[in-house]
Design goal:
Length: 213
Amino acid sequence: MSDFDYARHRMIEAHIIRRGLTEPRLVEAMRSVPREAFVGAGLQEFAYADAPLSIGQGQTISQPFIVALMIERATIAADDVVLEVGTGSGYAAAVASRLAQDVYTIERIPALAEEAEDRLQRLGFGNIHVRIGDGTRGWPEVAPFDVILVTAGGPSVPPTLKGQLAIGGRLILPVGSESEQRLIRITRTGATTFDEVDLGGVRFVPLIGKEGW
Ligand code: SAM
């Protein structure tokens, strides 16, 4: 076992399983994605701290516990099609791709999107599709989605993303001010009906776009 494998194993025990996220498919997915490959060379030694890390361009790779929480609460089935808004490093897309049929992910900063796409290809993730653009507009050609994960915080729920949820689909996103948000899960229960659950307080970078800040 390499030092990184050992550190990943320990992080998952301490920050994922012990904090109540025990769903076996999720734990296996987290175990199979090398987070050290998603951070810059100078930050690899911190890859298994349960903390966000800089990925350049003023953006961050999310804290592993929050990635796991969003994915577990989304209950991703093997034939689900997932949309992620905010590709960043590609790490959350990589974890979700181990559980889903396909992951479509949108990043507004071209340099990050290109870097993530190269990295995901190099690591052999064949079911992730990366696009540069404003993710608050969704990905209409592929919609409806079973799951939509938004990894940046906006002032309100983008109506376009609600509209791109399948019936029964789950949208998980941070909503609030630019400095702190509530993580919300919205389930589409019918053509015009939605249930909403508050999953707790979080801090994400801002969601910048037509239906964001
Ligand atoms: N999921 C990422 C990961 O695993 O590394 C972390 C993402 S980071 C916390 C949030 C990302 O959302 C940033 O890269 C930011 O540029 C991006 N972002 C913000 N607003 C966006 C928008 N409207 N559309 C697409 N990406 C957006």
